[in-house]
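[Discussion] Sanity-checking designs against the backbone

I'm trying to build intuition for which residues belong where. Below is a structure token string of 310 positions. I'd appreciate it if someone posts a full sequence so I can compare it with mine line by line.
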């Protein structure tokens, strides 16, 4: 067969001897069909994912627990809702249908090729392109919305993919106004030992830090979810929730708190024996689901001793 290829303005005819192989998707063409599941999340699916469930409760639609996403919002004001890791934006699009123009909806995406741009623009959703926790656009959003947000949702977003998920939790806490609520669903290996937020001891340290430094009671709760990859399969993931207290924070406190949590809990380290079951590479970086442990900084004297032995 023949095909024409262009080189500059000159057309070159190439004779292909063998039948060409089926074309493969470009490396940076994200979310092929088999990897689309984190992106398919409207308001109904988010409501189920962000509610505590068991295999038994998920066995029937009538017994499935759902988060009241629209409940407990301030009356007489225009609520501000942020979706971190917004995917294609369907959750916010659904919220726009519910609220009309009576809410400020903000979506944050580190991979903007996913976004349904026309639908999001029509719904007047404010879009922030950047990667948590420290991109410049992310810091701009923090300065603009510090202490002004009513709800922050994270559905397999930065709480799963971020290089340091603890920094993302702190970021969310700083966005919220007093009484504002945070909810995230994050991946696990199906047991309490392997999660993005480490094991039970790691999570206890995270709780201590948030209580001591932010006046926040953070909750980690294992919940059952319906698998999007295997029909009929039930998996276990981690629900992370908290309500913002009255403690006032300044934007400049963010980096200080990030350093403090690194010292308090440790630096996240990928558990290499638990290889990622989901990853893709884009122009915006690698996204993968990896279980973590948290290792403390080595003491300065230990580092010096190790250097002396070399």
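Best answer:
Here's mine. Compare freely.
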């Amino acid at each position: 067969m023949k095909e024409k290829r262009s080189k500059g303005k000159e057309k070159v005819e190439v004779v292909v001897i063998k039948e060409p192989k089926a074309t493969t998707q470009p490396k940076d063409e994200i979310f092929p069909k088999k990897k689309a599941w984190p992106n398919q999340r409207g308001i109904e699916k988010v409501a189920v994912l962000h509610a505590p469930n068991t295999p038994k409760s998920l066995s029937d639609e009538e017994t499935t627990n759902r988060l009241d996403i629209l409940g407990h919002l301030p009356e007489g004001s225009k609520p501000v809702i942020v979706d971190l890791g917004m995917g294609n934006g369907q959750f916010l699009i659904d919220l726009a249908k519910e609220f009309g123009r009576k809410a400020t909806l903000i979506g944050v995406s580190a991979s903007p090729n996913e976004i349904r741009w026309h639908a999001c623009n029509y719904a007047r959703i404010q879009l922030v392109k950047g990667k948590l926790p420290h991109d410049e656009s992310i810091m701009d959003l923090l300065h603009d919305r510090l202490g002004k947000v009513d709800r922050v949702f994270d559905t397999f977003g930065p709480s799963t993919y971020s290089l340091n998920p603890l920094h993302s939790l702190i970021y969310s806490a700083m966005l919220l106004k007093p009484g504002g609520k945070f909810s995230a669903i994050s991946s696990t290996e199906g047991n309490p030992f392997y999660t993005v937020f480490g094991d039970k001891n790691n999570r206890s340290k995270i709780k201590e830090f948030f209580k001591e430094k932010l006046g926040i009671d953070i909750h980690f709760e294992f919940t059952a979810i319906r698998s999007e990859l295997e029909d009929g399969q039930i998996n276990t993931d981690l629900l992370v929730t908290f309500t913002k207290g009255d403690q006032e924070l300044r934007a400049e406190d963010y980096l200080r708190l990030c350093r403090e949590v690194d010292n308090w809990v440790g630096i996240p380290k990928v558990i290499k024996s638990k290889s990622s079951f989901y990853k893709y590479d884009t122009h915006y970086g690698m996204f993968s689901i990896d279980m973590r442990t948290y290792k403390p900084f080595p003491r300065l004297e230990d580092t010096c001793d190790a250097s002396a032995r070399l």
